[in-house]
Design goal:
The protein is an alpha+beta fold. The chain has one domain. It has a two-stranded antiparallel sheet with strand order 1-2. The chain is flat and about 60 Å long.
Length: 64
């Protein structure tokens, strides 16, 4: 029974531990997440045939 409780606790807390480890690593190596800009275009009128929304991601400096 104790093993089952310990296993459940381990897998419950694992995502938080991994997130913290990744965050600490990024701080140590000086990594910053890129800023992602998006352009949203609406075509037509809402509720009518042919209405759509398009989202286009703009390229970043790191894109090759």
């Amino acid at each position: 029974m104790q093993k089952a409780i310990a296993r459940k606790k381990f897998y419950t807390t694992l995502p938080y531990k991994l997130d913290n480890a990744v965050s600490d690593y990024k701080k140590q190596v000086g990594h910053t997440d890129p800023v992602i800009e998006a352009e949203v275009t609406e075509e037509g009128t809402f509720g009518e045939d042919g209405w759509s929304i398009r989202k286009r991601l703009k390229p970043t400096d790191t894109d090759a």
